[in-house]
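User: Hey, quick favor. My workstation is busy. Could you predict this chain's structure for me?
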Amino acid sequence: RLGNAVQAAMKKDTCRYLVVGAGVTGESVVSYLLANDKNIKVMDSRELPPNAKKISDKVGAHNVHYGELNQRWLLDADVIVLSPGVDVHTREIQTAIEHGIEVIGDIELFSRNATKPYFAITGSNGKSTVTTLVTEILNSQGIHAKAGANIGRPALDLIQDDSVEMYVLELSSFQLETCQSIRPEAAVVLNISEDHLDRHATYDEYFNIKMSIYDNAKTRIIPRNTTIKTRHATSFGLDTPPSGHYGIISDNEGEWLAHGQKKLLNTALLRLIGDSGKLNALAALALAEPYIKNWGAALEVLTKFNGLPHRCQLVFEYGNVQWIDDSKGTNIGATVAAIKGLERPIILLLGGLYKGGDLDELVSVVSDKVTAVIVFGKDRDIFNEALSGVVNTSIADSLEDAVLLASRMSQNNDVVLFSPACASFDMFSNYKERGIAFQKLAKKYGASHGG
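Assistant: No problem, here it is.
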């Protein structure tokens, strides 16, 4: 955890801020600091970062440095505001910390300056869905809420919007590791699986960063029956809930989302897929509960919400074969959750840049529920080696080859699940681009070969 001296520094007109990272977050930090008359410079290790010209125009060419991390500029700063894409463990950043320079992120700036209530949501999987659900539930109650941070607009853009009454923040581990002042109305860690171990030194470090979201939260929401524990928490889970907690109860009318013994919504009315959809709905209700006055309106949100693009999204169905885009499944835990949420026989497409994680967990669920696996991408051999003795496994040279092969394998009542369990950067700019590519290919080949 990092130091805490920036509040006093913000009051000094002479305080020198160095914004490291000239992407979307960096530009929002620049705009916020300029709006508050701060003295700033901007640095990026890339020769031509995404918002280079816009930022240069705002602060002046003499106040930007692109192409490397300039150690002299880092040591001359009073406060370094680090974008989440920049690793705090980078040698130049660590040298600055050792010299007593304050290093924070944009969420720390937000936390110290927000004057309205906000929610904080993190986890290895499901963050975006729950953040969106909470925002829509609050809006259904007549509260003008907006989502931001790791989804939608940067947090510092939201804080400058006077019309917003509440903020709902999706937070990654990269954002939390440079923030210690966060004080949300309610906070949740939805789940924790091995992820981003290409950046965090150990799983324990990753776990502790995620858990820090609870430190100063007024209300704590936790998943039941997991290693996520904290005091005075409301829990949610797929089992029968204790009084005051959220879960599932069953009777002769079916299965219900429930608060204690109170039935809230028949799960057949949910549009979110599988167990992960039920958990996300329960977490959202638990977070928003203190602000829910009209439960009918809140539950109607759950019956209308189809899910987010590229998160277990049904692309189309042809010949009684469903094609599901879960390109947002960039780690083992996400793919395991996607598999568990489906009832039909599964043809699984996975591969890309492996970020680490428990392959044994994947092997176990694949052996139970998957009929065939097609691997592709840079680290396809890792998955082929782990799964080839467990399930029928094929190797594809490209995503197009993988989709074509899946279409030829598919039979009546199958699901073709695109849940790569990997980052996309070996072949695509991001998971969205990858998901769009899958959807186009699925429609191209699924209709001609499927079923």
